[in-house]
Automatic annotation (TrEMBL):
It catalyses: a myo-inositol phosphate + H2O = myo-inositol + phosphate. It comes from the Bacteria. Its cofactor is Mg(2+). This is Inositol-1-monophosphatase. It comes from Halopseudomonas sabulinigri. The keyword Transcription regulation applies. PROSITE patterns: IMP_1. Keywords: Hydrolase, Magnesium, Metal-binding, Transcription, Transcription antitermination, Transcription regulation. InterPro entries: IMPase, Inositol_monoP_metal-BS, Inositol_monophosphatase-like. Pfam families: Inositol_P. Its EC number is 3.1.3.25. It is an enzyme of class 3 (hydrolase). Belongs to the inositol monophosphatase superfamily.
Length: 270
């Protein structure tokens, strides 16, 4: 392949391998075999980062860079390089840090790749449950080797809706949304990892997932999974979404429109 025709299957295989290896390294920290050295971003006790987050991101970034030096990179902990590259890796080394640091199993490694600005490759590795969610545009999505399919439900009563909100982000729409969801017979789940909840939508375990404001490293990988599994999503990357984040909704086709109406216009406004 030349520089103008990126080798996408090779990048898909790389994403899966590196996500798995990073997840195994994460387990060594999680199980207490490595020192976590916890710090608080900007001194805020609610926004934690550990040596595991930074070490895993450095490992992932080095592996991707070694294999494809021409590609760009955006990660939660180490920032960005070559954002204009055709292939742009978007990485969260540990999604679910609060769970990770509190001994809860809901965390994962999320490695996504944009091709020309569109989500194209996704790998989400959950070592505690031995699940690797992966997909590439046009090739389907899988958990380990099982194909993923979103739920066939047609009403929020028929299952669980993932929800999320981060302490420092606009929450004024959130409580009215939950009130309406409950009034309609729905039920919500917040497990602390947006990347995992997105993978669970692709797998049909959750009907959908709504977060008031998510970052691109939380969901670029998952957006590939959801699209390949037959789900819908809002225009998450619009505007400055890649760098600043946006409100986020993914869902199976049978409930997407209704959940979107419950959220209201803020879903696709700034
Ligand atoms: C967080 C998780 C959480 C979501 C937050 C994210 P982090 O990511 O995805 O589920 O509600 O908005 O910031 O900090 O654990 O990587
Ligand atoms: Ca995250
Ligand atoms: Ca993270
Ligand atoms: Ca974080």
């Amino acid at each position: 392949p030349t520089a103008s025709t990126p080798d996408l299957p090779a990048r898909y295989a790389l994403a899966q391998r590196v996500a798995q290896q990073a997840a195994e390294r994460g387990l060594a920290y999680y199980q207490g075999r490595e020192d976590l050295n916890i710090e608080h971003k900007g001194g805020d006790r609610r926004d934690m980062v550990s040596a595991a987050d930074c070490t895993l991101e450095d490992f992932i970034r080095a592996e991707l860079q070694a294999a494809f030096p021409e590609d760009g990179f955006l990660g939660e902990e180490s920032g960005s390089a070559d954002l204009q590259a055709r292939c742009l890796w978007v990485v969260d080394p540990i999604d679910g840090t609060a769970c990770f640091l509190n001994g809860l199993h809901n965390w994962c490694v999320s490695i996504g790749m944009l091709l020309d600005g569109e989500p194209y490759i996704g790998a989400v590795a959950d070592p505690n449950h031995r699940e690797l969610f992966h997909g590439m545009r046009g090739q389907g999505a899988f958990v380990n080797d099982q194909p993923l399919r979103v739920s066939s439900a047609s009403h929020v009563r028929e299952g669980l809706l993932g929800v999320g909100t981060f302490y420092a982000r606009g929450t004024e729409h959130f409580i009215p949304f939950l009130t309406q969801l409950l009034a309609e017979g729905g039920m919500f789940l917040r497990n602390g990892s947006g990347a995992l909840m997105t993978a669970y939508v692709a797998a049909g375990r959750l009907l959908g997932y709504y977060e008031t404001l998510l970052k691109s490293w939380d969901c670029v990988a998952g957006l590939v999974l959801v699209a390949e599994a037959g789900g819908r999503s809002n225009d998450f990357l619009r505007g400055d979404g890649l760098l600043q984040g946006n409100p986020y909704l993914v869902a199976c086709p049978g409930v997407y429109q209704h959940v979107r109406e419950m959220i209201g216009p803020m879903l696709d406004q700034d």
